[in-house]
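Question (not urgent): is this output format expected?
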Amino acid sequence: MSDGVSDETTKQGWLGRLRQGLARSAEKLSSGITGLFTKARLDATTLEELEEALIAADLGIKTATEVCDRLRRDRFDKDITAEEVRAVLADTVVSVLTPVARPLAIDTARRPHVILVVGVNGSGKTTTIAKLAALFQEQGRSVMLAAGDTFRAAAVEQLQVWGGRLGLPVVTTKVGGDAAGLAFSALEQARAAGTEVLIIDTAGRLQNKTDLMAELSKIRRVLGKLDAEAPHDTILVLDATTGQNALSQIAVFQDVAGVTGLVMTKLDGTARGGVLVAAAEKFKLPIHAIGVGEKIGDLRPFEPEGFARALVGLPETM
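Got this back:
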């Protein structure tokens, strides 16, 4: 089998999982739209109700307004079907997401390329690190992990388990140990080994923003002693099931950690997948990847069109 065929098969499998994962979000959006468009003609009342339904689906005010403005301009007082409305919605979502869809690019001139991963406890951060590592392994890159969430023994153990499964070295320290010291040691070891990618886990305690800021600042400062540009990426992992709360998390972590890009997990466990659109619209941060399941292959680089069509319940384009 040629690589081209293999890649296409993999892509089709991922699109199927994405569609399945977003089924609850699509159901919420589709049923809302279908319920509104029982009348043949588009009027002001229906547009107002549509805008409210889109906002309730976590898509964000700007996107909801833009969809309704397009329909008002092009289809007002004309016949329109629910599927035509979903098509306009999908096009609008693609236009919002395309500028921020950016795969996580590794700079091969750096050894290692350092990725700091941040996020609240329970967001799927540690599992996402393993899935990102597997993506880099697929690309033929060498990877090292650092268990920087030193206050949670379970997080350290979980990363060690994933490291064992993937055959990757995992740098650890004692429970409650200094996370910045661990990051420094991991960068030294990755350099000595000529490793291409170093992924560092971090604590996710948001109860005390000052402590979190101090710890992340110290990690960045210590890494900078070995590489003035490290970390080269600071990735925030978001749990889609938290809905609008994900937006406040982005604001906090931008402030404390200098976030450079996003990964959204657990899109398969929620009807609130539209929040990814609201996040893109509000923060304009690169979206590197999305997750729709627990398996190692359930996190893939973000592609706006497939996501948009799955989100609104439209079939894949041929």
